[in-house]
């Protein structure tokens, strides 16, 4: 099941460290579409300073920087945060550089000039990594926030509500298909496989989830299915 890249990354900050003349309009546009905030630095020194000040969720850096090496910068970042996802961009295709990137456990190594599909693929890997290892939050349409790691809803009034197993599985199914209508049979198959479920139990699950996340977030198209709006 493919998670929505935009929904996962949209609440996060990315630190982009690159020589000024190498940053393309394409790269800038993609990052601004997918992230809540894009922090740009043109040198490794300022990059590590902004990393410590801004506490980004993702780092993207050039292999070659104006006053240093991207690999050395990544090693410094790893000392501050051993698990933060890092993507390296490079004009060099030499296996030597790829092996160096693997040693510091980067998410992906993207060759420049950057193709949109390659950068988006790397960001998709980043989103999946964060879902499995990081603290990812999704801002719902009414402003409530879902925490993937804690399986909780933070409401606008500051209260935190824990979701049950089927509630968070259902919500994550709806998030991953946001804007699309999912019919009752697909939901039953995903949540209960071959197990028989009564109509009242099905409706009760949706009722509880809507109460917790906000009724306006989940649309019920009678006779068709359900969708997250």
TrEMBL record:
PANTHER family to which the protein is assigned, alphabetical: REGULATOR OF RPOS (PTHR48111), TWO-COMPONENT RESPONSE REGULATOR ORR33 (PTHR48111:SF1)
SUPFAM superfamilies: CheY-like (SSF52172)
InterPro entries tied to this protein: CheY-like_superfamily (IPR011006), OmpR/PhoB-type_DNA-bd (IPR001867), Sig_transdc_resp-reg_receiver (IPR001789), WalR-like (IPR039420), WH-like_DNA-bd_sf (IPR036388)
SMART domains: REC (SM00448), Trans_reg_C (SM00862)
Keywords: DNA-binding, Phosphoprotein, Transcription, Transcription regulation, Two-component regulatory system
DNA-binding region, residue range(s): 137-229
GO BP annotation list: regulation of DNA-templated transcription
Residue span, Response regulatory domain: 13-127
Protein biosynthesis listed as a keyword: no
Species of the source: Arcobacter arenosus
A single GO cellular-component term on record: cytosol
Residues with the 4-aspartylphosphate modification: 62
GO molecular function terms listed in the Swiss-Prot or TrEMBL record: phosphorelay response regulator activity; transcription cis-regulatory region binding
Protein name per its UniProtKB record: Response regulator transcription factor
Domain of life from the UniProt record: Bacteria
Domain OmpR/PhoB-type: 137-229
